[in-house]
Design goal:
The complex is a heterodimer. Chain A is 0% helix and 48% strand. In chain A, the strands form 2 sheets. In chain A, strands 2, 4, 5, 6, 9, 10 and 11 form a 7-stranded mixed beta sheet that branches. Chain A is globular and about 35 Å long. Chain A starts with a strand and ends with a strand. Chain B is an all-beta fold. In chain B, strands 2, 4, 5, 9, 10 and 11 form a 6-stranded mixed beta sheet that branches. A 5-stranded antiparallel beta sheet of chain B has the order 1-3-8-7-6, with no helix packed on it. Chain B is globular, with a radius of gyration of 13 Å. The N and C termini of chain B lie far apart (37 Å). The chains are: A mainly beta, B mainly beta. At the A-B interface, β4 and β5 of A face β4, β5, β9 and β10 of B.
Chain lengths: 118, 111
């Protein structure tokens, strides 16, 4: 089954304790991205990756790191989490494809990770 | 000004009604447009792409107005199962690098 998986689904942690949220896709997609979703603000892009070893900042990258060593995996790292990073996080992937292709840019999302930083 | 703006709602309409949402975008160079649906506490899922000529999928119709820089979604004969948040998404033509989501419009269909 084609899917994007994230782990953990729920996490409660304390300020300053490094954590990693994993993301994996089995669709051979080039593009992967991380978003956070907060009430009233919608989904905001944190980081994205166009392909292996190619990553770039989205709109809200501060306090986060990512890596893309393999095509299928795109972990999100919080080196020193703070309470303002409490949020719902989504990983997504898509095929680069060609703009004329119907599936161009369709984002496939993981189920989400609800993070609480105390 | 936000790059993509939506009326947050909620829109509360009776079953069977027709409802329409708009979404405005600020970057005239935007080229790809989508509507996503998100159920409570779930991940967003693609509802439909929006093409220049407009497109229809069953009870759903999407339109693009480049001159006024907005896209619209029309739902006819609404069902209880249409209750969800509808997210407008805008991307540039050249790549998938910058993907902007609206904050969503909440729709609630009542019996």
């Amino acid at each position: 089954e084609a899917q994007v998986t994230q782990n953990p689904r729920y996490l409660i942690t304390v300020t300053g304790k490094k954590l990693t949220v994993t993301c994996s896709q089995n669709m051979n997609h080039e593009y992967m991205s991380w978003y956070r979703q907060d009430p009233g603000l919608g989904l905001r892009q944190i980081y994205y990756s166009m392909n292996v070893e190619v990553t770039d900042k989205g709109d809200v990258p501060e306090g986060y790191k990512v890596s893309r060593k393999e095509k299928r995996n795109f972990p999100l790292i919080l080196e020193s989490p703070s309470p303002n990073q409490t949020s719902l996080y989504f990983c997504a992937s898509s095929s680069q494809g060609h703009p004329s292709v119907l599936s161009y840019n369709e984002q496939f999302f993981g189920p989400g990770t609800r993070l609480t930083v105390l | 000004r936000k790059e993509v703006e939506q009326d947050p709602g909620p829109f509360n309409v009776p079953e069977g009604a027709t409802v329409a949402f708009n979404c405005t975008y600020s970057n005239s160079a935007s080229q790809s447009f989508f509507w996503y649906r998100q159920d409570c506490r779930k991940e967003p899922k693609l509802l439909m792409s929006v093409y220049s000529s407009g497109n229809e999928d069953g009870r759903f119709t999407a339109q693009l107005n480049r001159a006024s820089q907005y896209i619209s979604l029309l739902i006819r004969d609404s069902k209880l199962s249409d209750s969800a948040t509808y997210l407008c998404v805008v991307t540039p033509y050249s790549s998938a690098s910058k993907i902007i989501f609206g904050s969503g419009t909440r729709l609630s269909i009542r019996p």
